[in-house]
């Protein structure tokens, strides 16, 4: 038999995470949200993170103006809604909507429904968040309002 080439370890691993495998936790980026890790950061060796994010407390001040150091970032709203400022444009993101946040876009999440839940997928997994100067005025949160 001819020599077989060595098979190197794959760049990513198979992952299957079920709801009871990981719990929602309060140690994520924002203290008014809860985050559930979906195992993708480990499976991709840090190339991508995927997490579910749910509302935990009513919005008071929102996220403040910021941007992310990331190559790729999408938000898929699963339930409820959230209101964002993307640069100077107010954007209502409702259940079923998908938003691609281009690298470096300045934004501010300022209001959301109590049942808000979204899937966030970001690359790399260890992306950073940087506060930025205000872009424009932000509407007031209605605090579980519409």
From TrEMBL:
Pfam families: Cupin_2. Residues 58-109 form the Cupin type-2 domain. InterPro entries: Cupin_2, RmlC-like_jellyroll, RmlC_Cupin_sf. This is Cupin domain-containing protein. It comes from Ideonella azotifigens.
